Structure formats: structure tokens, C-alpha cells
Amino acid sequence: MKCASSNATAVPRTTGNDVIPLATPGKRWYICTIGEHCFKGMKLVITVSTAEGPSPAPSPGTSAAEAEVSALRSCVWILAAMAAYKMIMA
């Protein structure tokens, strides 16, 4: 995965509360554009598969969007921790 975007219409995700819809199958690439972060490994590819059955119902009091954001936020935290570890160990 390159550390430069060829997507001229890409919208930066900078709020920390951004929602990224993963409604259609395919690959989505995300890179950090701050300094050398991407070159040091702060990049992510998400492969969205076709659902084989109905989506599970969200737990009471949680919307589907909140569940999706929560899962993505967890993934981002794991990637950030891995990137920090990689930078420390470099």
C-alpha cells in the first residue's frame, strides 16, 4: 500500500468521531498523512465482504451506526498502539 492518495475527492478524517460507512463490498485504504507516520506503518486496509445472512440486531440501546463506529474505533486504537510500539522499537 502506498503512502500517497490518488483519490482527489478523499475527505480527511480528523475529528476522532468520524463515521466510515462500510456498506458495500470491496477494499478501503486509509493512511495517516501526518509527518512520516504512514511510512512507519500507520496505514490500514479494510476488506468489506458480502454478508452471507442478515446482520445481527444491535444490542438494546445501541444503534447499528454506534456499533460500527465502536468496532472501527477499537481497530484504530489497536493500530495506533502497534504503530507507537513500532516507532519506539525502531
TrEMBL record:
Instruction: Mention one GO molecular function.
Output: electron transfer activity
Tell me which InterPro entries the record gives.
Answer: Cupredoxin (IPR008972), Phytocyanin_dom (IPR003245)
Name the domain of life this protein comes from. Answer: Eukaryota
Q: Where is the Phytocyanin domain?
A: 1-50
Q: Matching Pfam families, A to Z?
A: Cu_bind_like
Name the chain's protein. Phytocyanin domain-containing protein
